[in-house]
Amino acid sequence: MAELQGIDLDRPGRQTGTVEIRDGSDSVRIPIVSIGDGEGPNLFINAGSHGDEYEGPIALRNVLRDLDPGGIRGQLIAIPSLNPPAARAIARTSPIDNIDLNRAFPGKADGSLSQRIAAFVSEVIVPRCKAVVDLHAAGRDYQFEPYVMMHVPEQLQSRALFDETLMAAQAFGLPRIFVVEEPERDGILSSEGMLDTFVESLGKVFLCIEAGGAGTTTPQTVAVTERGIQNMLAHFGLTGDAVDIPGGPITPSHIHAKGFQFAPVGGLLEITCELGSQLAAGEPFARIHALDSDGSNPQDCTATIDGIFAARRHPAFVEEGGLIGGIAQPFAT
To answer: Which residues pair with 42 in a beta bridge?
Structure first.
C-alpha cells in the first residue's frame, strides 16, 4: 500500500512530505513536494528512478530549495528520488526485488515494492498532471551528451501531441533532442513497462531527460538540468519567467537501432572521438586492445552509419558484442 504523510496534494502552498510504500516487511519512504496555488497547469517532475543516475536528483533538489512558492501558479509535484533502494545500492535496479522501476509501469498496487511505487505514480500523480518530465542520466556504464528524448509521431496518439512534445523538448534547452523509435517489446529500445509509454497512452506530454552519466555529475550537467527544470516551469505556465534557450531552439535528431555500435571483439576500449563529433559511415571512432596482445594490432571500431556520436560506453573494458556507442542522424519533422 501507499500512504502520503505530511502532505495533501489538494492543498495550495508549499508542502513537503513523504510517500510510504509497504510490501510486507519491505518498505520505502519517498520524498514528495507540492508547490502552487492550484489555479492553473499541473506539472510532475521526477528523478532517481534509476539509482546510479545523479544529475536529476541533485538538480531538482537545488531548484526546489530556491523556488518561491508565491511565484508558482497551478501545481508542481516533484519527487527528487523515486527509487531510494536503488540509490543506496548505487544500482539501476532495486536490490529488494531486482526490478528496473522504469520497466514496471503502470505497476501493480499489490505487487512487489517497485511495482507499488510505479502504481502510486500511475494512479495518484500522473492523472493530476498535464505533462511529465522524467529526469535521467546514462548511469555508471555510459556517458551522453545531454539530450532530451521523445518518441516518433507514430508512437504518439496524434501529430498534435508530437508537435506539443517537440515544443516542450526545445524549451528544456539541452544541446540535443533525440527522437526515438522504441518497439513495444524486445531490444535495447523496448518501450515495454516504461513511464513514457504509460503517460503517452493518456495523451499527455512526456519528456525524458538524459543529462550526462558515467555514475557522477559535473557542474555543467547539473547546471543545464537546473536551467531545463526552470524552463519547464516557464514553458508550461507555472511561472511568468521567460524560457532561456542558449543559441535558440534545437533541431531534433533521430536515434534508432541502426545507430547502435557494438564491440567486434572483447578487450580494452579506447574511444578516439569526442561526444558530439560528426562521423561518416566507415570512419573509426574507437579501437579495442585484446588483453593478451602487445598493442601492435588493435581492432578498429568503425561507424555503421553517418551521424553524430551521441553516446559512449564509460568503463574501458568491454566484452565482445557489448554496446559501445550510439550514433544519431538528422530527423525530418
So the answer is: 75
**237: region left, alpha or beta (phi > 0 left; psi from -120 to 50 alpha):** left
Q: Please check whether the domain covering 258-330 is classified as CATH 3.40.250.10.
A: no
pLDDT in tens, 70-119: 999 999 999 999 999 999 999 999 999 999 999 999 999 999 999 999 99
pLDDT recorded at residue 189: 57
pLDDT in tens, 174-209: 988 999 876 554 555 567 899 999 999 999 999 999
Q: If we measure between CA atoms, which residue out of 10, 11, 96 comes closest to residue 51? A: 96
DSSP state letter for 141? T
Phi, psi of 280 (to 5 degrees): -105, 150
Class for the domain spanning 2-250: alpha beta
Q: What whole-number distance in Å separates Cα of residue 67 and Cα of residue 304?
A: 46
Rounded Cα–Cα distance for residues 148 and 134 (Å): 10
Residue-range domain boundaries for the chain: 2-250, 258-330
